[in-house]
């Protein structure tokens, strides 16, 4: 039997101390119908991230010649997943904060066809070490997305997200700096079904977060505004619904 393909992709910038451990923990044989491959999007790292990823068994590495930003890296990850023939994709940060062991949990709703887009949700699960200002920032940006989408969301900034093939093909990330909020707004407004799965999260012990408060706010808010102003194709929503009706017969 020909197996389907699941691709685990990691955006990475200077994660030489972390990425090897994340790749080593990716479960490779958890589903009889899927083979699992690991893809790293190295965003112009100037340390030994690529070497560490290769040594840990990454199947594919795409390197940007210079640093473009996390949004650009996730966009490239989704594109490469499609080019590599992925039926399902999951992104996970390369900094050892998210649990690769829970990849099966986060993908389960997509595998059974109940969702198109999933988050590993820290605020539905267990969090270790998150500082108060980061927690408040997460609540604020999550609340903003929930208000704009008129639905409850628990963890709008999660760095662990699963995608159906269809969602990967049609996702749009409109800025290079980040993807977290604009991607969810984009997919949910297109009609893709979102589910959040509780995960355990542990703040990184090595390396540094790229987030600087002012730059984050001044980049992310205008991008959210622009994404909300983009028209959503009604045709796309209808096609999605027809496809679901057919597959549920
Ligand atoms: N592509 C890309 N990834 C980055 C950049 N900065 C950080 N990352 C990666 O994005 C993920 C999340 O970044 P991190 O700084 O930990 O953000 P935080 O978890 O929100 O504090 C990690 O896998 C980083 O390696 C960047 O400039 N470009
Ligand atoms: Mg992080």
Automatic annotation (TrEMBL):
Protein origin, superkingdom: Bacteria
SUPFAM superfamilies assigned to the protein according to its UniProt record, in alphabetical order: Nucleotide-diphospho-sugar transferases
Xref: InterPro entries: Glyco_trans_2-like (IPR001173), Glycosyltransferase_2 (IPR050256), Nucleotide-diphossugar_trans (IPR029044)
Glycosyltransferase 2-like domain segment(s): 8-169
Transmembrane segments annotated in the record for this chain: none
Name of the featured protein: Dolichol-phosphate mannose synthase
Gene source species: Paenibacillus marchantiophytorum
